[in-house]
Amino acid sequence: MILAHQIKAFVTLGVFLKQFSENERKQTDNSLNVIYYDEFNELVRSIHFHNGWFTETNVRNAIASIADCLESEQLENWLIAYPEISRNEKPKKVAVIMAGNIPMVGFHDMLCVLLSGNKFIGKLSSDDKMLLPFIAKILIAIEPLFSEYIEFTEGQIKNIDAVIATGSDNTARYFQYYFGKYPHIIRKNRNSVAILSGKESTNELGLLGKDIFQYFGLGCRNVSKLFVPKEYDFKLFYESIFDFQNVIHNNKYCNNYEYNRTLYLMSNHPSLLDNNFLLLKEDESYSSPIGVLFYEFYDSIPLLMKKLENDTEQIQCIVSSTSLKLKIENLTAFGETQCPKLTDYADSIDTMHFLINL
Fold first, then answer.
1. Which of 65, 97, 221, 300 could bond to 123 as cystine, CB 3.0-4.6 Å?
2. Is 238 exposed, middle or buried, given 0-12, 13-18 or 19+ CB atoms closer than 10 A?
3. Contact at 8 Å (CB) between 279 and 295?
4. Which residues pair with 122 in a beta bridge?
5. Residues facing residue 97 across a β-bridge
6. 27 pLDDT higher than 80
7. 225 by DSSP, 3-state: which?
């Protein structure tokens, strides 16, 4: 396939998807809308019956993130960095084993595989097996040649040339055992952290709430831990995130929150703080349970930077205010963790570079 034709198809897909992020049908006479709008809109509205974490709001947020990336200028600027992209006469078959923690989390991998000129073989999570195949169907309707490059499978993965697999630290060992003989990217658990100075505004902390609660904290880009100065007063933090209190009305989130609160109270944790929808627990770990946010006090920024540098493989995003003047590459602003750019590769592994050099 010609790269320019692929880019054009994805741009058209982005225009179509943007309607769902804004929940407003804009092109009533568009052929894609005539065929697919109502069916896809119904899927967006009802997918929570299949997976209670996939609320309509969260699905529309995920669609918005995808649609924002599928703009012509963004795609072209991204691909400029890869002049070695070629159209192989024999494209490689790349198996992509996807997680199911947030809606359509495997879309970026699919995009990379296709634009690198290779064939995509998707192995979906049982938690997210409807949305991406539907989007692929729309993409094929836009550019029928994609039908030869996109495949989803529920069976054993065979006859492949490379693997991209995303999962937990435990499943990573399984992936390594079965797919280690192929060129591969195997992703493990990662978490995101926020560094606070104690001088943040209510608005900044409110945006941090978005980084914590969007997708119920299930993504590797969600903030699961705070680093705060000693004697930090959490009162303003709790006041600033109060608008997210409705998260407790989701049954799955509430069950996790109640379970963890009971567990911690029975264990008499002295550092436990609670506002009836988020527990704050002092803990050195990065991966906090659902409904819980870990925090840790730091003595100085230089010592904290050294710690984070040593723990690089556990961290996806670092969120903080620019006023702290942290010397961190790709520092993420408050409220932006779930708005990744095309160049924000999972586990900081350049997926496109890997694919075009198979």
1. 97
2. middle
3. no
4. 96, 152
5. 123, 165
6. no
7. strand
pLDDT digit string, tens, across residues 129-148: 999 999 999 999 999 999 99
pTM of the model: 0.94
Q: What is the dihedral of CA 245, 249, 251, 256, to 10 degrees?
A: 20
| Secondary structure (3-state) at 275 | coil
Model confidence pLDDT, tens digit, residues 211-222 = 999 999 999 999
Q: What is the DSSP letter of 36?
A: I
Is pLDDT at 152 greater than 90 in this prediction?
yes
Q: What is the mean pLDDT of residues 16-37?
A: 84
Structure tokens at 31: 């052929």
Residue in this structure with the two tokens 């192995």, named with its chain if needed: 123
Superfamily for domain range 191-324: Aldehyde Dehydrogenase; Chain A, domain 2 (3.40.309.10)
* Cα separation, 344 vs 332, whole angstroms: 11
Angle, CA 351 vertex, CA 316 and CA 358 arms, to 5°: 150
Out of 3.10.290.10, 3.90.1030.10, 3.40.605.10, 3.40.50.790, which CATH number does the structure's domain 3-188 have? 3.40.605.10
User: From start to end of 232-321, where are the E strands?
Assistant: 273-274, 279-282, 292-298, 315-319
Which two three-digit tokens encode residue 236?
Answer: 């303003």
From the CA atom positions of the chain, what is the Rg in Å? 21
Lowest mean pLDDT among 55-59, 85-89, 230-234, 280-284: 85-89
